[in-house]
Amino acid sequence: MNHEQVKIPQATAKRLPLYYRFLKNLHASGKQRVSSAELSEAVKVDSATIRRDFSYFGALGKKGYGYNVNYLLSFFRKTLDQDEITEVALVGVGNLGTAFLNYNFMKNNNTKIVMAFDVDEAKVGLKVGGVPVYHLDELEQHLNKDIPVAILTVPAHVAQPITDRLVKQGVKGILNFTPARLNVPEHIRVHHIDLAVELQSLVYFLKHYPAE
Ligand SMILES: NC(=O)c1ccc[n+]([C@@H]2O[C@H](COP(=O)([O-])OP(=O)(O)OC[C@H]3O[C@@H](n4cnc5c(N)ncnc54)[C@H](O)[C@@H]3O)[C@@H](O)[C@H]2O)c1
Questions:
Q1: Which residue's alpha carbon is nearest to atom 3 within ligand 1?
Q2: Given ligand 1 and candidates 102, 154, 200, which is best to mutate, with the most ligand atoms within 8 Å of its CB?
Q3: 4: helix, coil or strand?
């Protein structure tokens, strides 16, 4: 099947890295096939959803056989562009930002934080997790079109002006950890990660949909 023609729903696309990571481990352990039940158990996605997701990839599991691990892996590699590393900038080297820099997403991923910015003179000039920290004043000097993604871990009240500058420099996607709602032009994608909301929603589900 022609990979270029595959149009995957967003919810499915979001689960791809999860599947990919698990299948890579399976492959490394020498497994050739996997059932949707096994996958479901490992990635905690129900097996009906997995079957539907995989049908978009042209992978139709056979009863009693499951899915071909090699086929899926080569599909995911192509779709996720694993050979190409996407460079990321981080703004705000505080508690959260420092944790991300130390973690740096390389282990199972195709993204890498390559530079960070802060206004705190005590942090500027340091390397955190091997990543250089520059002063925010130098944003325009260092950030170019090769860096399409930025992570925002600054105080909420400075999030918007920094976002405007990031967009001006050619950033296309922003992972926003601040509580601020960001205004961006239509072609810019913002993913807002609000841990308080996530936590609340978890508590809600526990309360209203308790496990048997
Ligand atoms: N720490 C958490 O667990 C957590 C969880 C959810 C959301 N958040 C949100 O993430 C953001 C960061 O949280 P934190 O705990 O890391 O805060 P923090 O105060 O530890 O870090 C903020 C960092 O941003 C820097 N900064 C301030 N103004 C700046 C500017 N104009 N340009 C660049 N850098 C600037 C500060 O010097 C500091 O290093 C906040 O908006 C917070 O609400 C934090």
A1: 96
A2: 154
A3: helix
Which atom of ligand 1 sits closest to the CA of residue 99? 16
Q: Which of 84, 55, 67 is nearest to 27 (CA)?
A: 67
Question: pLDDT of 130-155, one tens digit each?
Answer: 999 999 999 999 999 899 999 999 99
What is d(CA 29, CA 41) in angstroms, rounded to the nearest whole number?
A: 17
Encode 35-61: b = buried (16+ Cβ within 10 Å), e = exposed.
Answer: bbebbbebeebeeeebbebbeebeeeb
**75: nearest Cα among 57, 48, 101:** 57
Helix, strand, coil percent values for the chain (each to nearest 5): 45, 20, 35
Q: Known binder of ligand: residue 94?
A: yes
Same domain, 104 and 74: no
Of ligand 1's atoms, which has the minimum distance to the CA of residue 195? 6
DSSP string, 102-142: HH-TTTT-SEEEEEEEES-TTTTT-EETTEEEEEGGGHHHH
Task: Please indicate, yes or no, whether residues 71 and 102 belong to a single structural domain of this protein.
Answer: no
Q: In total, how many domains does the chain have? A: 2
Q: Are residues 134 and 60 located together in one domain of the fold?
A: no
Please tell me the residue having the least CA distance from ligand 1 atom 37: 120
pTM beyond 0.90: no
